[in-house]
Design a protein that fits this description.
alpha+beta, Neuraminidase, four-stranded antiparallel sheet, 1 helix, 25 strands, 14% helix, globular
């Protein structure tokens, strides 16, 4: 204890004042901490509430889903932040698959395609107009068939090439270098040309029956009445010339087994090449086929019956048509019949007679110039083994 009571009293008062100030400061600090904790608690509560409301917003009541096949969205647990959505990278579209395409235009393929089978107006051979002629390689006989089913041998003389007149009443043939004509009802043949005629060009009658296309020193037109000969223009280099049914066009073959079409005019100096057939370019002629021997031509020269064969010489070069070709495109027609085509010839009016083989039976189908199947009938079995030669009025 100090000797000075007054100083001691002042020290005691100062201590009390300091304690009071420290107490007040502590109380103030405690209030601030409490306020901060309260604010933090309020913020946490608001955060949890917002998350809960957000989760409820994503939930859909049962039965009210817009996507019936998709499961309901699941809300994130309250108090946790939703996991970040995975980033979606734009997918790269797969390159388009190349579909197989036909090689060149479909029309570039010369082989005939399939067509829906047609129904004929008649299935009776008796409804077949005109006359049908048959022959066999190496055999001199020529057989004629009429619609009543009767057949008759109309030529027995040896020959190397022949042609039947458009009306079916005469046959021109080559024998020993001479050109002769005989009636189909018999009789003595007439010698029409005194010079040498080659069998390379089968005698081809004009539609009016007054002229013949023959091979003398060169391809020429022979007048049947007086025997005069008029050579074809030198520019028409080819063989196996055939007239169209209206006499306006000549169709012939080249050495490369291509077909050409020219005007049937003595002054004609050029011809149009039928595309595809005989073309050495395999992109244009993928089948490698040619037409070395035109057999018969329709009324206008637009279609020609030919034996299609490989241009590499592996074919049999039979003088029997197995296809009908469009001379504007080189495409083989799709004929609406069943069986394998073993013969096709045009009549002068444009009607087309097609011979087919199926299951050992042969059938004749007659089409109009417009393509209507008029008659389809089985051929008499005695004609089996012969080749279709001509179809006339």
């Amino acid at each position: 204890m100090t000797d000075d009571p007054l100083r001691e009293a002042l020290h005691s008062l100062a201590d009390d004042v300091q304690d009071a100030e420290l107490y007040g400061a502590a109380m103030l600090r405690s209030r601030r901490i409490a306020h901060r904790r309260a604010a933090a608690g309020t913020l946490s509560a608001l955060t949890v509430l917002s998350l809960a409301v957000g989760g409820l917003w994503q939930l859909r009541p049962p039965g009210n889903s817009d996507d019936s096949g998709r499961g309901a969205a699941v809300a994130e647990p309250a108090g946790q932040l939703p996991a970040p959505a995975p980033s979606i990278q734009p997918s790269r579209a797969a390159p388009p698959q190349s579909s197989p395409t036909a090689r060149g235009p479909a029309g570039r393929e010369s082989r005939p395609s399939r067509a829906a089978v047609a129904s004929p107006s008649s299935r009776s051979l008796s409804d077949l107009p005109g006359r049908v002629f048959y022959a066999k390689a190496g055999d001199p006989e020529v057989i004629r068939l009429k619609g009543n089913g009767n057949t008759r041998t109309v030529l027995t003389a040896a020959h190397s090439a022949l042609g039947v007149s458009p009306d079916g009443t005469k046959i021109a043939y080559v024998a020993d270098g001479a050109l002769l004509v005989t009636d189909t009802i018999g009789g003595t043949p007439d010698r029409l040309y005194a010079g040498t005629v080659s069998a390379e060009q089968a005698p081809a009658w004009s539609p009016d029956g007054r002229r013949l296309l023959v091979e003398a020193d060169d391809p020429a037109v022979l007048d049947v009445a007086d025997g005069t000969l008029q050579p074809l223009p030198n520019t028409l280099a080819g063989s196996n010339f055939r007239w169209s049914g209206d006499g306006s066009k000549l169709v012939y073959a080249t050495e490369s087994c291509q077909l050409k079409v020219a005007d049937a005019d003595p002054s004609a100096t050029s011809a149009v090449t039928v595309p595809v057939l005989g073309d050495p370019d395999t992109s244009d002629n993928p089948s490698g086929l040619g037409a070395c021997l035109p057999v018969s031509v329709d009324a206008t020269g637009r279609r020609v019956a030919v034996p299609l064969e490989p241009v590499d010489g592996t074919g049999d070069s039979a003088p029997v048509a197995n296809a009908v070709v469009d001379t504007a495109t080189g495409h083989a027609d799709a004929l609406p019949i069943e069986g394998t085509v073993i013969g096709a010839v045009f009549a002068p009016d444009g009607n087309l007679l097609v011979r087919t083989s199926d299951d050992g039976r042969t059938t004749l189908s007659l089409f109009s110039a417009g393509g209507t199947l008029l008659v389809q009938a089985h051929e008499p079995s005695r004609l089996k083994g012969l080749d279709l030669l001509a179809y006339t009025r």
